[in-house]
Design brief:
Order of helices and strands: HEHEEHEEEEEEHHEEEEEEEHHHHH
Shape: globular
Helix content: 25-40%
CATH topology of the largest domain: Methyltransferase, Cobalt-precorrin-4 Transmethylase, Domain 2
Oligomer: single chain
Number of domains: 3
Largest sheet: 7 strands, antiparallel
Strand content: 25-35%
CATH class of the largest domain: Alpha Beta
Mean pLDDT: 90
Length: 383
């Protein structure tokens, strides 16, 4: 079993990006340009590594390999994005890997691109990349090519060596459990569960009981053996259930208008463990967006756009309008899900202004709203 934190360290020890891995400071899938760049590297790494895994490390400074981390990225449907634009798409996996020196809400992203013999190429245009374009790696660059790609095994020995040096041990597992429960989450309820005498899941959160259901807030969940963060959120709440074979997380998001908030089930993730040392993650979208009166929504929508306009122009806004701005991302998301087609683009266009607001919740809510919309989009494309 590979310890993903060790794997990242061993990849970075190679210093320079190469034909088998790339590193990025952050991942931006909100824009077509960001998606195009990500897909370009996936395409190039896949074509240049038909016989071994290749990797993208996210949350690392390019010049000096400083680990700065990135936001927790829980988009289990990122494979759908790859499938939508690439012909012969490789199988990919995105994992969130915690590092001791990073804040709780920051992780290093690890994209694993599985080997595949068929050549990947773009099957439709995106940003400046045209359909039928093929990319390969030349050193640390992903470049287009019209030449036939030769089958190569040049990186097999290097990757096998790196992965073998990243194997987990009992010491790593015990250290991981103690670090999670004592050092990082000593201030809240922490628990662990061992599955199949091999896998260890730790979780922490603040419990609160609503009716007959116990929810956890400020939740952090990790698969310790592989140093993978399974879930993290400072805002949403989850319910957790488990038996001897599986561990299930149901995420709930707080949504509402005019300070009236309810929790809505968003997504169910079940991890099933097997006797052969293998595990499988299954994801099910549960979200049913709340419906509101159209006339009332029109009024709220226009009022929120007016508040944003005042903020953009530097006009002082009231305490009530500050609260409206804090809820602006969720409000526009609700409007979009109720048929206001331009609301999503207006939310995206507002990103730089929301990010510059002194209240950190404003931009945090923006990222949460975009995450939910992205999940819904990928889920719809997969139906």
């Amino acid at each position: 079993m590979i310890n993903k934190r060790l794997l990242i360290k061993n990849l970075l020890a190679h210093n320079d990006e190469s034909t088998f891995y790339d590193k990025k400071r952050q991942l931006n899938l909100h824009t077509k340009e960001g998606k195009a760049k990500f897909l370009k590297h996936i395409c190039a790494l896949s074509n240049s590594n038909p016989s071994n895994n290749s990797y993208i490390v996210v949350g690392v400074e390019d010049e000096n390999n400083e680990i700065t981390g990135d936001d927790f990225f829980d988009d289990s449907r990122i494979q759908n994005l790859v499938n939508a634009f690439l012909e012969n798409p490789p199988k990919i996996l995105y994992e969130n890997v915690p590092f001791p020196n990073l804040p709780k809400d920051r992780v290093v992203g690890l994209v694993t691109i599985k080997p595949k013999h068929k050549t990947s190429f773009f099957k439709k245009n995106i940003h400046t990349i045209l359909a039928n374009t093929v990319f390969v790696r030349r050193g640390s660059n992903s470049i287009p090519t019209e030449e036939k790609i030769p089958y190569t095994k040049q990186n097999i020995e290097t990757i096998i060596s790196i992965e073998n040096n990243s194997r987990n041990s009992i010491a790593h597992t015990l250290d991981g459990v103690m670090n999670f429960m004592v050092e990082r989450h000593g201030d809240m309820l922490s628990q662990y569960k061992v599955f199949k005498e091999l896998f260890v899941i730790c979780w922490a959160g603040n419990p609160k009981k609503i009716r007959e259901t116990t929810y956890l807030s400020r939740v952090d969940i990790e698969l310790i053996n592989e140093q993978i963060k399974l879930f993290y959120s400072a805002l949403d709440v989850v319910t957790i259930s488990f038996d001897d074979e599986s561990f299930t997380i149901i995420e709930h998001v707080p949504l509402g208008l005019n300070d009236k908030t309810s929790y809505y089930p968003l997504e169910k993730v079940t991890i099933r463990f097997f006797d052969n040392g293998y595990y499988k993650m299954e994801t099910q979208m549960l979200f049913e967006p709340p419906k509101y009166n159209t006339k009332m929504l029109h009024h709220i929508y226009n009022a929120n756009l007016a508040v944003l306009s005042k903020f953009q122009k530097g006009i002082t806004i009231s305490e009530r309008e500050e609260k409206d701005l804090e809820n602006f991302p969720y409000t526009l998301m609700i409007c979009y899900l109720n048929g206001f087609q331009d609301a999503k683009q207006k939310l995206i266009d507002a990103k730089p202004f929301l990010k510059s607001n002194q209240n950190p919740l404003v931009y945090l809510n923006f990222k949460e709203a975009m995450r939910i919309l992205r999940k819904m989009k990928y889920n719809k494309n997969n139906e």
